[in-house]
Amino acid sequence: MDRFLLMTCFVRAVETGSLSAAGRDLGLSQPNVSRYVAALEDHLQTRLLHRSTRRLVLTPEGERYYAEVRRILDAVTESESSVRDNVEPSGLLRVACPTALTHAFVLPQVPAFLERYPRLELDLQIGDRYVNLVDEGVELAIRIGHLEDSALRARRIGLFERVCVASNGYLAKRGIPRDPDDLRDHDCVIFTLLSSGSTWRFRNAEVPVSGRIRVNSPEAAREAVTAGLGIGHGPQWLFEAGLKDGSLRLLLGEYAAPPVPIQILYVANRLMPKRAIVFMDFITQKFSQIPALNVDVTTTLAS
Q1: CA–CA dist 11, 66 (Å, integer)
Q2: Nearest in space to 272 (alpha carbons), one of 95, 124, 29
Q3: Which band of pLDDT confidence, cut at 50, 70 and 90, is reported for residue 252?
Q4: Which of 10, 50, 136, 202 fits a disulfide with 255 by CB distance 3.0 to 4.6 angstroms?
Q5: pTM (2 d.p.)
Q6: What is the dihedral of CA 104, 132, 16, 51, to 10 degrees?
Q7: Contact 32, 10 (CB under 8 A)
Q8: What is the pLDDT of residues 39-51, one digit of tens each?
């Protein structure tokens, strides 16, 4: 049996979420797709999918196999496109994106991107957990901070400042911190997915902070700060509305750490499909026009 067909049926079943949808996508009947996936499992002598009447769930072996097979199918597609001199990007592009940044700056660009590339599909995997590009079949990841994984390459697409802020109501009750060490005596809103944990970084200091509320969402952190539950620390653009209308106040500006990069990451030794290249170019160009994501380093350091 054609192993390429078996792999294609398996991948489309995973991506569409059902055997029936995969069949419609491939022009096959649902029983045939089910039979082909079962044949692939027989060939590999392992279960790839748990099937139920409602959904398909990848087994751990299926997750690993999906990531590998997805790369194989992408490589085949790119090779065929090169032979045909087909310059129009197509197919499904998976991009892992941080929550707040995506809602504020990526999603507004998506309509124009999809209009420009009508043969492309976009799977934005929005969340603040660490996504392993090598193992999870994701082609690109937008990340905040510096690159630490040597298996990846990065293209910087932005630069922003982290700031400390608090509501006027909170400051009226608890006073204004004059230096970073004063934060030890304040309630701070803790974003639990921050890479540095409950340690906030400043220009010449790293300060452990604590507070009565912890959240795993940047937007929730902003709302908690706005409600007067504590001092917040995060991208200036996250708190921009409150700073502009006066409900939030900027703190410890003279101690701010150097600006933080925003980068698109991709696997260094993996063939990059054209759809990933055009997405990187598009987002880089759009982000370059957003002042909040293009902080002047010399101005920041001089302030």
Answers
A1: 7
A2: 95
A3: very high
A4: 202
A5: 0.69
A6: -130
A7: no
A8: 999 999 999 988 8
Phi/psi at 149 (5° precision) = -90, 115
Chain centroid, CA 162 distance in Å: 18
CB 276 within 8 A of CB 139: yes
**Both tokens assigned to 192:** 């639990």
Annotate the chain with DSSP letters as a single string: --HHHHHHHHHHHHHHSSHHHHHHHHT--HHHHHHHHHHHHHHHTS--EEE-SS-EEE-HHHHHHHHHHHHHHHHHHHHHHHHHT--S--EEEEEEE-HHHIIIIIGGGHHHHHHH-TTEEEEEEE-SS---HHHH--SEEEEES----TTEEEEEEEEE-EEEEEEHHHHHHH---SSGGGGGGS-B-EETT-TTTTEEE-SS-EEE---S-EES-HHHHHHHHHTTS-BEEEEGGGGHHHHHHTSEEEE-GGGPPPPEEEEEEEETTSPPPHHHHHHHHHHHHHHTT-GGGB--HHHHHH-
In 3D space, the residue among 147, 168, 172, 171 whose CA is nearest the CA of residue 157 turns out to be 147
- Out of 78-82, 265-269, 284-288, pick the least confident: 78-82
Reported for 85-90, long-range contacts at CB under 8 A and 24+ positions apart, including other chains, are 87/274, 88/117, 88/119, 89/117, 89/119, 89/120, 89/273, 89/274, 89/275, 89/277, 89/278, 90/117, 90/119, 90/120, 90/275
- Do the Cβ atoms of 260 and 186 come closer than 8 Å? no
Tokens linked to 121: 């599909």
Question: Residues 47, 59: contact at Cβ < 8 Å?
Answer: yes
Best CA proximity match to 162, nearest among 142, 178, 180, 149: 180
* pLDDT value of position 81: 61
Sequence letter at residue 25: D
User: Which residues, in sequence order, are CB contacts of 14 under 8 Å at separation 6+?
Assistant: 49, 56, 58, 62, 66
